[in-house]
Amino acid sequence: MQGLRASLAILTIFTAGVMVVNGLTSTSVRLSSSGSVKALGVGVYWDSACSQTVSSIDWGLADPGSVKNVTIYIRNEGNAPITLSLQTANWNPANATNYISLSWDYGGQAIGANQVLAVTLSLSISSNIQGITTFSFDIVVVGSG
Questions:
Q1: Residue 21, exposed/middle/buried by CB under 10 A (0-12, 13-18, 19+)?
Q2: Predicted local confidence at residue 37, as pLDDT
Q3: Has residue 1 been placed in a domain?
């Protein structure tokens, strides 16, 4: 079909965390992220000028029942409008998904060629988290259009 353009972009950020127990009555979770970013058609940056590429995320210290937010900037580096979707993959251990979740505030709007959009990622830790001392997962952002 002539005139039809489609693009698919995948961004993977490896995320890892470690739970730290402080004393007998309180539990804290130290969440950190490191690894490489793989992107095709989109770029992910720390700043709206798109000069600082995201290569890792440091979630800092989080308590059970808390939500940690990180703002990133996603630029459509293709030549056609795209929409984004968020996925997680490769949870280790697999039951971490019972206690930890990732969401964002992206509203589903189309992102034009070279357009930059600020997106806030939110990592939620269940107040009932238990039995997990370390975890890891991938964050996957898919752009299609």
A1: exposed
A2: 53
A3: no
Q: For position 32, what pLDDT does the model report?
A: 38
Q: In this structure, what CATH number is given to the domain that contains residue 81?
A: 2.60.40
- For residue 85, give both structure tokens: 């979707």
Domain assignment present for residue 2? The answer is no
> Which residues have a Cβ under 8 Å from the Cβ of 106 and sit 6 or more positions away?
84, 86, 117, 119
Supply the pLDDT for residue 38.
54
Count of structural domains, the chain? 1
What is the spatial distance between Cα 110 and Cα 79, in angstroms, rounded to a whole number? 13
Residue that has been written with the tokens 């979740």 in this structure: 101
Q: What is the pLDDT of residues 2-16, one digit of tens each?
A: 333 333 444 445 454
DSSP three-state, residue 131:
coil
Among the listed residues 65, 66, 54, the one whose alpha carbon sits nearest the alpha carbon of residue 11: 54
